[in-house]
Design a protein that fits this description.
One of its GO terms (biological process) is lipoprotein localization to outer membrane. With 400 residues, this protein is of the alpha+beta class. Helix 10 packs antiparallel against helix 11. 38% of the residues are buried. It contains twelve helices and 14 strands. It is elongated and about 100 Å long. The two termini are 32 Å apart. It is 53% helix and 20% strand.
Length: 400
């Protein structure tokens, strides 16, 4: 067995070293492009998914969210509970929020919105709304009767649903917010744009404004929690529950339903591109190996004539294809991981959801490499098997 393998390696190496260098170069270049095509879409989806996750955590949920017990409207005694959670070493910030569905009216227009009542200092430790301001300022702890609107409410700044916004609102305008059937006036202090339509459809007021109206002192509808970079959400969730917390504690992934739908759709498109890429790879390898075999037909006949077994000759051509695929994968992986991905990390691509970088995981790269490798094996096995089954006379003297 070992001797037969050595002979196969010997025949394959001689064919690569003494064969047509142009064909070898062309084959490796084409397979490199095929591999890049296979991993490029995966890296785009990886980058977009990462961005979606970041904006959800940075502008919506934080890393964890505490919600009221089942069948209860509020989290009670929220100040004491917040202090308990703050003392965990992994926790960076805690922001209790009051939240209600309401409507905001300005002139002749009225739009539905989610209004959050927050402590600006605490919210600043959990989310990044303050850095997303495009006009005016974010509310401060002492502001009363002021409101900050997302761009989907104010309109302008590239709002996705401009026609369903208040359109002409600017900083300093007075809007009416309907709360419990009563209209309350708020002065617009600022407008923010996170590029995430769910976050941009909300508004923020001082928590004390909502506490008075809802009679909800020391209560909250949710507590958003920010943890240290690299800390495990599930571990911190268990730590919070171990404090005796009876409320629901959820990780941000449990709020990513719509993002999972988008990710699933993109993954389906990616799989289609992968299937097409593999078919292209298979055809290219088949054609290249077939041309290579035809050019060596007489040599194959001589090899058979001197007693080299057909399996050894077939194995030599499969080894050649594996060599081409391996070199192409090394070049393709290096280009994608160290050139293209590295470039987009330092020069992110501007996309509708913000700056996006390519993100290729090693597991995805390995899976695509294995697929290309299998295509190379199958694409070389078929033509080499058919050629070696021909008679000696046909191989040595027959026409191509």
């Amino acid at each position: 067995m070992l001797e037969r393998t050595k002979v196969s390696f010997f025949l394959a190496s001689r064919s690569i070293l003494r064969g047509n260098k142009g064909i070898t170069f062309f084959t490796i270049i084409v397979l490199t492009l095929v591999y890049l095509q296979l991993v490029f879409f995966s890296s785009v989806i990886g980058g977009v998914t990462l961005k979606f996750n970041d904006v959800l955590v940075d502008y919506q949920t934080g890393d964890l969210v505490v919600e009221p017990k089942q069948d209860e409207l509020y989290i009670s005694n929220v100040d004491a509970l917040s202090k308990k959670i703050e003392h965990l070493p992994e926790v960076v910030g805690v922001s209790p929020r009051l939240r209600l569905k309401s409507s905001i009216a300005f002139k002749e227009k009225e739009v539905g919105a989610t209004i959050y009542g927050i402590d600006a200092n605490e919210e600043g430790l959990v989310t990044k709304f303050e850095s997303a301001m495009v006009e005016g300022e974010f509310i401060s702890k002492l502001d009363r009767g002021e409101i900050v609107l997302g761009r989907e409410l104010s309109g302008g700044y590239g709002a996705v649903m401009q026609s369903r916004s208040l359109e002409d609102v600017t900083v300093g305008d007075i809007v009416n917010v309907m709360i419990n059937g009563q209209a309350k006036e708020f002065r617009v202090k600022g407008i923010y744009n996170t590029l995430f339509f769910m976050s941009d459809s909300s508004a923020f007021v001082n928590k004390e404004d909502l506490e008075e109206i809802l009679d909800a002192e020391n209560k909250a509808h949710e507590i958003a929690i920010k943890i240290k970079d690299g800390a495990d959400e599930e571990y911190v969730r268990e730590e919070i529950l171990s404090l005796g917390v009876q409320e629901e504690v959820r990780t941000w992934q449990e709020f990513a339903g719509i993002l999972k739908i988008i990710e699933g759709t993109l993954s389906m498109v990616r799989n289609i591109f992968t299937a097409v890429g593999l078919i292209v790879a298979f055809v290219i390898i088949f054609v290249v190996i077939f041309v290579n075999i035809v050019s060596q037909k007489r040599q194959i006949g001589v090899q058979k004539a001197i007693g080299i077994e057909e399996e050894i000759i077939i194995a030599s051509f499969v080894l050649q294809a594996m060599f081409y695929a391996f070199v192409a994968m090394v070049i393709g992986y290096s280009l994608m991981q160290f050139v293209f991905t590295g470039y987009t990390q330092s020069h992110p691509i501007s996309a509708p959801i913000g700056k996006v970088s390519l993100d290729l995981s090693n597991s995805e790269a390995a899976i695509r490499a294995m697929m290309l490798f299998m295509a190379a094996v199958i694409g070389s096995l078929i033509p080499s098997y058919r050629m070696t089954k021909r008679s000696l006379l046909d191989l040595i003297w027959g026409a191509n």
